[in-house]
Structure formats: structure tokens, C-alpha cells
């Protein structure tokens, strides 16, 4: 079934802009990105949109559809009433470059702030051994396609630009959690306490486990339940366990 859909698409740049109305044909089986491409091909040749794979794997086509952070290539037109208006706007938490394209460099900066995996001393590459359950735990987080929809939806930064310097956001707190629960990561032995840095440098305390990030993740990663809450628990154990506290003091003095 083909029909004409009513779209509102945000057009503009860093200096400002607004919603522009379009009526555009929709064919059976299409997704929002198909419609945006048709708009480019017909009446808005200069409409800026970022995309690559059209398969939900590159994480490029993130936007907000009727106010909800989503991948345009994975949002079927069939989920909308054909008579309803579909509104497409750029991700709100990041500065607009043009139209639906945002500057996501905040995320790259936060990625660089998380220290990499520290290889265990005395174990050659290729000799690493892990229990399957530890592999599975990391594997869930490794499904991330870096679409940054979780970063966009998190209320800590969504309307609070001032929180950005102190808060890494769910995607990168998840990365800290992944490394902290990695059985072969030798960070602690190298003087890097990932639980402390999660609190002091990546803003773990800002997260009040609302799970909004989890709700928008297109990979279905349980960011809050499987990464953020366990990291909070371990960070709290470390802070309030007197033996852990004493041990860390002795280690620091001996460092
Ligand atoms: S659970 Fe935490 S990180 Fe996720 S959206 Fe809520 S406050 Fe942000
Ligand atoms: S955790 Fe999910 S929502 Fe966040 S960047 Fe990765 S795939 Fe996207
Ligand atoms: S175009 Fe790659 S995730 Fe949508």
C-alpha cells in the first residue's frame, strides 16, 4: 500500500531553524530513512542527513522521531498511523551542524578519557584465558554501535550543557564498567582504580538509574541493569568497606 505521509523535518543550522512541512510518498515496507531519502531526491535536495549502512549497524542515522531518540533506518513507517504527522528532528543533546546532522564530538572526547584495557603482566598475547560467563558479560556491551542515542536521551546532559564536562554518559560509563569487571584487566595493579575514576572523573554519581538510556538502545543492551548499577554497587562497596579503604590507603602509600 502506498500513501502520502505528512512529515515535519527540522531544517536549519547552528544559527537556528525550524520545522518544515512536507508531503511525501511512502511505499510498503519502508523506513523513515527511505522517506528522508525520497525528500532529498524530490523536494529538498540540500537536506543534510548522516547515514551509512541502512541496516542498524553503523550508528550514523540517529535522530529524534516524534521526540523519541531512534535510528531512522530501523524505524518502520508501519508503526505510525498513515494519517498522523511524523516529526523528525536532530538529536537534542548535541550541537546541530545542519538539518538532521549533529556534532557528536562530545562522545569522542569522552571515549578518549577512559583509559584502555591494561594487559595482565606476564601473560603473552594469545594466552589470555577467561571463563565463558565473563566473556558473555563483556560481549553484551561490545554490541554497542555507537549511535549515541543513549547519550542523547540521558537527562543529565540532555538539557544540561553545564553537566557535560563532568559526566561521561551511559555509553562510556558502560565502557568503564566493562573494563572494571574484566577479569584480565590489570589496571588496579598499575595504580588505576577504575571504580574511583568512575565516581571522580566520569560522573557516575550523576546517574540516578532512570533507565531511559536502556529504553532507547537499538541493540537492546541493558546499560543500567548490567553495567551502571553493578558499577555503582562496586564503587559503593569500595568506598564504604573499611578493609578495602585501608588496603587502598596502604597501596597508595607504597606506590
Ligand atoms: S540510567 Fe543513568 S545514564 Fe541512563 S539515562 Fe538514566 S541517569 Fe542517564
Ligand atoms: S549503548 Fe546502545 S544506545 Fe548507547 S551508543 Fe551503544 S548502541 Fe547506541
Ligand atoms: S544507517 Fe547505519 S544505523 Fe542507520
Automatic annotation (TrEMBL):
Functional pathway: Carbohydrate metabolism; tricarboxylic acid cycle
Signal peptide: none
InterPro entries, alphabetized: 2Fe-2S_ferredoxin-like_sf (IPR036010), 2Fe-2S_ferredoxin-type (IPR001041), 2Fe2S_fd_BS (IPR006058), 4Fe4S_Fe-S-bd (IPR017896), Beta-grasp_dom_sf (IPR012675), Helical_ferredxn (IPR009051), SDH/FRD_Iron-Sulfur (IPR050573), Succ_DH/fum_Rdtase_Fe-S (IPR004489)
Cofactor: [2Fe-2S] cluster; [3Fe-4S] cluster; [4Fe-4S] cluster
CDD domains, A to Z: fer2 (cd00207)
Alphabetical UniProt keywords: 2Fe-2S, 4Fe-4S, Iron, Iron-sulfur, Metal-binding, Oxidoreductase
Domain 2Fe-2S ferredoxin-type, first and last residues per copy: 5-92
PANTHER family: SUCCINATE DEHYDROGENASE [UBIQUINONE] IRON-SULFUR SUBUNIT, MITOCHONDRIAL, SUCCINATE DEHYDROGENASE IRON-SULFUR PROTEIN
Similarity annotation: Belongs to the succinate dehydrogenase/fumarate reductase iron-sulfur protein family.
Protein name: Succinate dehydrogenase/fumarate reductase iron-sulfur subunit
Organism name: Streptomyces stramineus
Amino acid at each position: 500500500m502506498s500513501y502520502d505521509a505528512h512529515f515535519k523535518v527540522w531544517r536549519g543550522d547552528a544559527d537556528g531553524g525550524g520545522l518544515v512541512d512536507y508531503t511525501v510518498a511512502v511505499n510498503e515496507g519502508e523506513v523513515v530513512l527511505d522517506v528522508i531519502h525520497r525528500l532529498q531526491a524530490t523536494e529538498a535536495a540540500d537536506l543534510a542527513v548522516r547515514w551509512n549502512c541502512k541496516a542498524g549497524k553503523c550508528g550514523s542515522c540517529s535522530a529524534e522521531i516524534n521526540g523519541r531518540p531512534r535510528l531512522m533506518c530501523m524505524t518502520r513507517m508501519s508503526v505510525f498511523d498513515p494519517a498522523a504527522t511524523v516529526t523528525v528532528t536532530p538529536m537534542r543533546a548535541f550541537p546541530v551542524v545542519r538539518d538532521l546532522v549533529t556534532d557528536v564530538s562530545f562522545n569522542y572526547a569522552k571515549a578518549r578519557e577512559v583509559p584502555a584495557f591494561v594487559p595482565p603482566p606476564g601473560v603473552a598475547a594469545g594466552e589470555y584465558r577467561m571463563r565463558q560467563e565473563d566473556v558473555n558479560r563483556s560481549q553484551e556491551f561490545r554490541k554497542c554501535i555507537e549511535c549515541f542515542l543513549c547519550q542523547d536521551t540521558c537527562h543529565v546532559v540532555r538539557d544540561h550543557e553545564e553537566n557535560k564536562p563532568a559526566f561521561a554518559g551511559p555509553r562510556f560509563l558502560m565502557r568503564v564498567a566493562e573494563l572494571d569487571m574484566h577479569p584480565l584487566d590489570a589496571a588496579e595493579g598499575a595504580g588505576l582504580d577504575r571504580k574511583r575514576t568512575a565516581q571522580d572523573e566520569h560522573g557516575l554519581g550523576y546517574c540516578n538509574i532512570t533507565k531511559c538510556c536502556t529504553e532507547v538502545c537499538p541493540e537492546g543492551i541493558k546499560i543500567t541493569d548490567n553495567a551502571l548499577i553493578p558499577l555503582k554497587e562496586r564503587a559503593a562497596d569500595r568506598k564504604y568497606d573499611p578493609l578495602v579503604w585501608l588496603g587502598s590507603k596502604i597501596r597508595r602509600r607504597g606506590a
